[in-house]
Design brief:
Layout (H helix, E strand, L loop, with lengths): L13 E5 L3 H10 L5 E5 L5 H8 L4 E3 L13 E4 L4 H13 L3 E4 L12 E5 L2 E5 L6 H14 L4 H18 L3 H13 L1 H7 L3 H13 L9 E6 L10 H9 L2 E4 L5 H4 L7 E4 L11 H13 L3 E6 L9 H11 L3 E4 L4 H9 L11 E6 L11 H4 L4 E6 L5 H10 L7 E6 L7 E6 L3 H8 L5 E5 L6 H4 L7
Parallel strand pairs: 1-2, 1-4, 2-3, 4-5, 8-11, 8-12, 9-10, 9-11, 13-14
Antiparallel strand pairs: 6-7, 14-17, 15-16, 15-17
Helix pairs in contact: 5-8, 7-8, 11-12
The protein binds S-adenosyl-L-homocysteine (SAH).
Length: about 450
């Protein structure tokens, strides 16, 4: 970060603007949104600057710049078309430790003015350090459209009750819970609808309550999807931003973990095949204990928590202990892999049903209803099946599928490491070995696999 973003209090700030053309006028107008005292020096001034001076909003000296103009100033903007003068003022200001900005001349700027989204008291300031102005403008437009103007009202409302809330709750955490509850609920809704007095009345009532939900722990069992952070649900993201603690597995990507509230404690409980870092019953107990201690716990799981995710077991323990919880579905690996590999799981000409099965090996065999899996016009998806691939192929053939049946393996679906290998039940093992497929990998069996030749769209970076 070459530029350090700060917000400067302008109540006692003295600014000098040298130059009074249109460019200088724009800086003056920006400064006038603040409480800074503004002095403008220039031999000649444009209409806007003259008008502002006549209205008494600024002090204008119609003369050339003098070194004495810098006395008692903290901030200087230079906007003249005399480049030698610009350099001189820059040097003189710098020598006096006064921050100086020569407009449109980055090397002569000790600070730069950011691009602003103004929802006072909420102000968003952005900068590209001058290297990507168009990208910056694009991002600003996006923010302007997603942050409603009325956020200002919420900001003003928060300011009004700030001291009362501080007096009511002695800890930062309790205050945070209280405010989150306010901003998530009816009070904020009333403010945004312009019902200020109703909102204030509700707020007073809320503050007077003896009991607050705050401090009561809860568990959110959240499906994080197959890997691509774009595939998270809005609800998953919202809860991740609220978490005090996050308990996550191996399948949750680094990019997704970065979206968790920065101050949240992050606990890894592992789970690679046959290398269970923390036994399941300990995880179940851990979730309950953390919530009972008053934490908002996000249990983040790859894919969907209720599809081969042992989510059911985890919440059974919570029910027993009386801990409240929510379950947030996620995009399961079968959906993610199918979409990103261009293999529809069902298709009128290929498959009228789809079955999700576990391919997990136990004592070198897989205990499944094989006649049901070896059906024509069906797509069968195996989770956790990479090691068991030889058994899967053998059993499907033994129970009636032709050895020419199409099969695909999708490694790290939806991520830049995605790899797809296709073949048939006879040759797939060799192809998988040649391609060096690694976990996590999903197996898709059925004639839908042939559609990939036409429908493959996802081009990963790798
Ligand atoms: N709850 C998860 C599944 C957990 S079981 C879900 O709904 O997706 C773990 C298995 O999921 C892995 O062995 C692998 O078969 C599959 N899997 C998970 N993420 C995957 C990914 N990005 N690409 C391919 N397979 C994946």
């Amino acid at each position: 970060m070459q530029y350090f973003p700060i917000f400067v209090d302008t109540t006692e700030l003295n600014c000098l603007v040298v130059g009074a053309g249109e460019v200088a006028a724009r800086k003056v107008e920006l400064l006038l949104k603040t409480s800074a005292t503004i002095m403008v020096v220039a031999p000649w001034a444009c209409d806007t600057v003259n008008r502002l001076a006549n209205e008494g909003k600024i002090t204008l000296h119609t003369r050339g710049y003098e070194a004495g103009d810098l006395v008692a100033k903290q901030l200087v903007f230079v906007a003249t078309d005399d480049s030698a003068l610009n350099v001189t003022i820059h040097q003189q200001a710098k020598a006096l430790n006064i921050l100086v900005n020569v407009v449109d001349n980055t090397p002569l700027c000790q600070f730069i003015t950011p691009s602003i989204v103004d929802r006072s008291p909420i102000i968003i300031a952005m900068s590209s350090g001058g290297v990507a102005p168009v990208l910056l403008r694009y991002l600003r437009q996006k923010l302007e459209s997603v942050i409603p103007q009325k956020v200002s009202l919420l900001g003003q409302f928060s300011e009004k009750f700030r001291d009362a809330v501080k007096a009511r709750f002695d800890s930062v955490t309790k205050r945070r819970y209280f405010w989150e509850d306010v901003l998530d609920g009816d009070v904020a809704e009333q403010v945004l609808q312009g019902n200020q007095s109703k909102a204030e009345q509700m707020m007073h009532e809320k503050l007077a309550l003896d009991e607050h939900d705050s401090g009561k722990g809860e568990v959110y069992l959240v499906g994080a999807g197959p890997g691509d952070p774009d595939l998270l649900t809005f609800r998953a993201l919202r809860l991740m931003q609220k978490a005090d603690v996050v308990v996550y597995d191996r399948l949750v990507s680094k990019e997704i973990l970065e979206l968790v509230r920065r101050d949240a404690e992050k606990i890894y409980v592992g789970k690679a095949r046959s290398l269970h870092t923390v036994p399941q019953d300990e995880i179940n107990q851990l979730l309950a204990d953390l919530a009972l201690a008053g934490n908002r716990v996000v249990r983040l799981k790859g894919g969907d928590p209720f599809i081969f995710g042992r989510g059911g077991e985890e919440i059974e323990t919570l029910v027993e202990k009386g801990v409240s919880f929510q379950v947030v579905p996620g995009i399961t690996a079968a959906s993610g892999a199918a979409s990103y590999a261009g293999i529809p799981l069902t298709h009128r000409d290929h498959a009228k049903s789809v079955v999700f099965a576990t391919g997990h090996l136990r004592d070198n065999s897989i205990d499944l209803n094989w006649p049901m899996l070896a059906q024509p016009e069906q797509t069968t998806v195996f989770y956790m099946g990479l090691t068991g691939l030889p058994v899967i192929c053998e059993k499907l053939i033994e129970h009636g599928l032709p050895d020419t049946t199409k099969i695909a393996l999708v490694q790290s679906a939806t991520t830049p490491e995605q790899k797809v290998v296709t073949g048939n039940l006879r040759d797939i093992q060799q192809r998988v070995a040649e391609a060096g497929i690694k976990p996590p990998a999903l197996i898709i069996v059925g004639s839908v696999v042939s559609l990939r030749d036409k429908l493959n769209w996802f081009k990963q970076n790798a």
